[in-house]
Amino acid sequence: SCWGAGCKIDSFPITYLGLPLGAKFNEKDIWDPVIRRFEKRLSGWKAAYLSKGGRLTLIRSVLSSIPTYFLFLFPLPVSVARKLEAIQRNFLWGSFGGDFKFHLVRWNIVKQPLSFGGLGVRDLRLFNEALLGKWLWRFMTEKDNLWRKVVSIKYGTTNFGWYPSSPNGSYGCSLWRFISKGWGGFSPHFSFEVGDGRSISFWNNQWNEDGLLKDLFPSLFVLANDREASVADYWGQGTDSLGWRPIFVRDSFEDDDT
User: From the CB of residue 167, how many other CB atoms can be counted at a distance below 10 Å?
Assistant: First the structure.
């Protein structure tokens, strides 16, 4: 038994290597360690001995020391983001307890980069979205990794295995469902190198500078005989002459008439 072997018996959720193991990804409680770290590092007594420039520097330092693995694995709830931003705002302007100080600049401006007239304080929610979006990039580039194979088998893939299929209904991991929703904002920012064209979708992958062909030519996409065809499928089509040879439904009708 566990008792006889001297093993500790516990129940989920537990903390393992600094991460909550077995907890629901959208529970606010998993962010309590991050909130406590903010409150400790940005405490009121420190603000009393620092100029606004010093406070701003400390805020940036605290943001850079947040456990990035939290933001890399869990979506940041809106209420937690607001709590963390409130701690930063109060520290920057010196508002603690009943001692209210006017906030001289709106927080939306404070979060802007210095080149855009802001103070360069990192937007936590955008940073969180960027880190979660990295999983989509890793899905495309780490095809031999175990986690990628598990996701592919469980949910399936589309577009010659480049994209993960979105979980539907109540089936599947809600965290991966959340990450998959970011695909629409992620996919326009990269393009494919065609190579031999066998693993690139002619219509559904962006392999040219202008965008997806199905979006550029929607009327032709509707008439396409094979909307999942690869680039190689439409190049030459087995003829002696090189050139694009897409097949449309109308072409098929004409062949039948002939």
Answer: 20
